[in-house]
Write a structure and sequence with these properties.
Elements lengths: L19 H7 L3 H15 L1 H4 L3 H24 L6 H17 L3 H21 L7 H46 L5 H7 L6 E8 L7 H14 L5 E5 L2 E8 L15 H13 L4 E7 L5 H17 L5 E4 L4 H6 L4 H8 L8 H12 L4 H8 L3 H15 L6 H20 L2
Parallel strand pairs: 4-5
Antiparallel strand pairs: 1-3, 1-4, 2-3
Helix pairs in contact: 1-4, 2-4, 2-6, 4-7, 5-7, 6-7, 9-10, 13-17, 14-15, 14-16, 14-17, 15-16
Amino acid sequence: MDDASGTAGGTAGPASGGAPGLAAVLLPRIAEMAAETVARLTADIPAYRLLPDSVLGGDLVANTEAVLKLFFTTVAEGRAPTEAELAAPVAWGAERARDGVPLEAVLRVYPLGARRAWELAATGPDPVDDPYALVTGLLTFLGEVMPKVAEAYLREQADLDWEQREHGRNLAGVLLAGRPARRAAERYGRTLAERYEVVVLRLPEAPGGATNRILRALRSELDGNPEVLATFKGEGGVLLVPLGPVPPGLRGPTGPDGATRRLLARLDTAAELRCTAAAAVAEDHESIPRAQAEASEVLSLAEDLGRPPGLYRLADLAVEYQLVQPGPARDALARVLAPLEDQPHLIATLREFIAAGYRRADAADALTVHRNTLTYRLGRIRLLTGHDATDPTGARHLAAALTAYGAARRTGA
């Protein structure tokens, strides 16, 4: 039996008065029992077969022998193991966490070892005089050590998750700042992709403390994707999603490979709400800051336009993106709505009418007004701007003006 971590020892002893002859009968067979237990572990549990031979044939067998010896000694003396006696076995469980062995596999060694001890005690060539004392001792020992192993393993796993998360956050920060990150990645034992899709993420609005729950859910999902580098701040974050190499024969920038959309779908499921995100491809590490700037602009544009939650790229909003670039054309378009600035309800009406696909009934419902009120407001917009939102040409012009107007207000230009 190996594996454990933590402190705290037991105080309650076995229900019986001990089994003085037990140690004499079974202690000489500890090496045999340990070897059989480890052999069963490697045969039944794939996770153990992934451990290096030095661990399987060395530490694991030695740790199992030590725990068996502790068990037989405490049972023979009719007492529970002390805190000091459990310290080393419990620490071994934390080592298995760092080895990547699942908790279920770590705990499995204890009932396996206990079963073999019982078989030898009850049916071996030299049965013990008091099998009841052995059963009581087994239950007492397992009740003491297994909860401590589980607690320590989970604590160690949490520390490992935190370390990995911090490593990913630090690497993301270095890359987003445009600084070389390969040396830091080597120090953390991480491998960087050559290409990334930079995803700027906005968490959905949530009541009360639900935002913290959403963040925890997202981080938990990302913990299972260590190749994705992530950094969060406030109600948003930036993800660096690795992309595959450029296919042979292709030149110039290539599009995403679908990994981002699949990841965001899992994040939506974890958060139980749909997030809004924008992405841009960085063909090398040096272009990551530029890709972040592009994705941030696309995300702000999607939000200004009232687009529903989802993933957006520049190609999705190319026309609108071009309209919001600073220049005389954007300023001219923004001035189209200048007559409406002191009547924000008219701007809101125009925005909802466009978002509703120019359908009067849907726009009126979104604004919670009567259709006649909507018609009156559209008439006021036509009168003040000189463009008719119900006419195809006027509608296109007003939609472009609204995009430019929102961008100008956002930048203060």
